[in-house]
Amino acid sequence: MKRFYRNVAVGETGGGFQILLDGRPMKTKGGAKLLTPSQALADAIAKEWDEAGETIDPHAMPLTRLAFAALDSVRAHRDQIVETVAAFGGTDLLSYRADTPQELVVRQMHAWNPLLDWLVGRYGVRLRVTSGISHIPQAEETFVAFRNAVAAHDDFALAALHTATALTGSLVLALALSEGRLSAAEAFAAATIDETYQAEKWRQDKEAQERLNRHASELAAAERFLRLLA
Hints:
Blueprint: E1 8-13, E2 16-21, E3 24-25, E4 35-36, H1 39-50, H2 62-74, H3 78-87, E5 96-97, H4 102-123, E6 130-131, H5 140-151, H6 155-168, H7 171-178, H8 184-191, H9 193-201, H10 206-229
Parallel strand pairs: 5-6
Antiparallel strand pairs: 1-2, 2-3, 2-4
Helix pairs in contact: 2-6, 3-5, 3-6, 6-7, 6-10, 7-8
């Protein structure tokens, strides 16, 4: 899309902070007025639009995309998204461990076990763990705790949590990121232990590395989005 504005500004209104393009309030793709709960987030989104060139590239605007998702998708389908994100806890990455080689087993244990301990202290539930790919059911109380934890996020935070969960394959990692227990870099490293190990043993192909780099960048944007909400 060709750039259609000259000036970008942020204005405060009764419902939050809005981004103004040539004095006109920005709207989402769904037609909602883009109002953010914090000025810091509005300023950061405005910067994405101010720094755009002659052609607007949505891929270069991750904070804008997350804000649009919050207002167009989460707000319209909140209950469904809460259930979708909470359901990741039933097949969480941290529950499924390698049984060989021993070096990989130890790496997973050292990285993931402290997070499961954190989960117990934070939410009072512990994920069941297994080796291999056979499904292991989680206790109903675990699902209740996850559902409540996810639902406690407002629409903007939930959009970022949804993204983080999908990128890492782990609700535990996404919650730890959301609550500041992990940085995006730490969460991504924990989520890609197997890929990192495989790359050390056999060279990573270019396409796979590009995908990992893209996911790392998206996770970093989700972290920044969450911190700007505070």
